[in-house]
Specification:
three-stranded antiparallel sheet, mainly alpha, Arc Repressor Mutant, subunit A
């Protein structure tokens, strides 16, 4: 992150670094993080961002569990940074959250039903 902060703030890399730093450390916004992850200026930025993907996915799951009892797999995939792979969305959630937070998966309607979060 120190390297990102030293970049010229007016260059594409500097703008990217500023947005990345803000979404990881200030707002903790997984949607913006994964948008930046898929649209970064250099592959080295993606390699650096790989260190934060699990953290941002856990934050996304936490927010979705509080906000939704169920959500479309596509929408959950956007939050988790996964495109066009429904099975991968479910497997990521099951791998990161133990015990699982998924009550059921409705393949007909493409929905994930979350367990109600306990206080």
């Amino acid at each position: 992150m120190e390297i990102l902060l030293k970049l010229d703030r007016n260059s594409n890399e500097g703008i990217f670094g500023k947005q990345l730093t803000k979404c990881v450390f200030v707002t903790e916004n997984p949607i913006i993080f994964f948008r930046l992850y898929h649209n970064n200026p250099y592959p080295t930025f993606r390699a650096m961002m790989d260190n934060y993907t699990d953290r941002m996915r856990l934050k996304a799951i936490e927010v979705m569990r509080k906000a939704y009892l169920s959500a479309s797999i596509e929408w959950v995939g956007i939050w988790l940074g996964v495109k066009n792979d429904n099975q991968m969305v479910v497997s990521i959630i099951e791998a990161l959250v133990q015990p699982t937070c998924i009550k059921s998966v409705d393949n007909d309607f493409q929905l994930i039903h979350f367990l109600k979060k306990r206080k």
